[in-house]
Each structure stands twice: as C-alpha cells, then as structure tokens.
Amino acid sequence: MEITNKFTELPESIQKLLQHINLDVLVSNPTFTPISGEQSRGLLFEIDNSSLVIKWFTQKARADNDIEALLDLAEIEYIPKLYSYEKRSYLVMEKASGSAVSLLLDHGQLSEVELKEIKKQYLHAVHLCYAAGRFDWDFKLDHIFWDRSRNRIMLIDFGEYSCVSEAITTSDIEERSFEFDEDVKEILLSSK
Ligand SMILES: Nc1ncnc2c1ncn2[C@@H]1O[C@H](COP(=O)(O)OP(=O)(O)OP(=O)(O)O)[C@@H](O)[C@H]1O
Ligand SMILES: [Mg+2]
Q: Which domains does the chain carry?
C-alpha cells in the first residue's frame, strides 16, 4: 500500500483498517458499504463512520489514471483528498459531500442562483486542473457533487483526466461552459 501525506491525518483505527484492503474484505466486512453506481466501471465502497470512499478498479488497463490524476491535482480545493492506494488495484479518497448535480437537477432541487454558483466553481476548477496539467475528457454532471451547506462543489471520477502541457485557451473554457449548459437543459427537459 502506498500512502500520501494526508493518510496520517486519519484516526488510527481507520489507518489500521486500511492496511488490509482486498476485494474479499470489501465484500464481506459490513464496515464497507457498496455504492451502486449505474454501469460503474469501478466498484465503489463507503467506509462506515468515516468520510472516505474506496474505488476498486475493475478495468485494469485504465486503473492508474485516477490515482495519477488525484496525485497531480492534490492541492486543488474541488478535488477529493487521496489517502492511500495500490496501483492497478484500488484507491482510498475523501467522500464528496452533498449529491450529484445531475440528481439534484432531476429532482428539481436546484435554484437558479445555486446553478450559477455551481457553474462558476466548476469553470474555476477546470482552470485549476488544467494549470496542474490535467483535463477531463468525460464531462458529466454526475461527476460534479454539490454541497449546499458548504456552498461548494467537489469533482469525482478521474479515469478520463488526460495530461495536458499547453496553456488553457478561452475556447476550451467556452466549450466546457456550453457543454455544462447543454447537459443542464437535457436533464431539465427529460425530468418534466
Ligand atoms: N469521492 C466520491 N465521493 C462520493 N461518491 C463517489 C466518489 N467517487 C465516486 N462516487 C460515487 O460512485 C459512483 C461511481 O464512481 P466513478 O464515477 O468514479 O466510477 P466509474 O467506474 O467511472 O463509474 P461510472 O462508469 O458509473 O461513471 C459515482 O457516480 C458516485 O456516485
Ligand atoms: Mg464515472
């Protein structure tokens, strides 16, 4: 198991628990609760009484992209903290609080003011990630979580975050802004 400098901030009992992760343990120990994502490529588990989730990789070829992206983006406020991992196997990260923007929209639970704030923070996050050398090719409102009580988004799923070396352009941001609006419209129309 590899650990990051955030790992030592975890309670000792959790640190101990994380030292023996394998799929049998995740499936059989009731401390781990599966999060059922639709058509998930990874197997996601919540750890009881902690704000942590484990992503167990099922598609080995793409597995390490999540880990490498989280390491590159570690200092960004909109990115879950990475605590520990084993390459080609799993990672343990901060659980995003709140709910997916797609779900909130579908249930009619977002005001226009909130949506504007979410988009502003999202485009800021795109800037910061790009500056840290990563760009997400798999834009989805499912991958933006919104915590109303903290007035904060958090991004999840870094499987498609590719390395970039050049500076971000205005048209990259405009494209992201457009995609965001289009996805919002699509959900609002289908939920009517
Ligand atoms: N850090 C996190 N905090 C809270 N929930 C998370 C977190 N990471 C993942 N999840 C939940 O687990 C689901 C699947 O995770 P993720 O998108 O990373 O995996 P995936 O293998 O790409 O699955 P999919 O193909 O469904 O997108 C997410 O849609 C989300 O509901
Ligand atoms: Mg995903």
A: 2-94 (3.30.200.20), 99-190 (1.10.510.10)
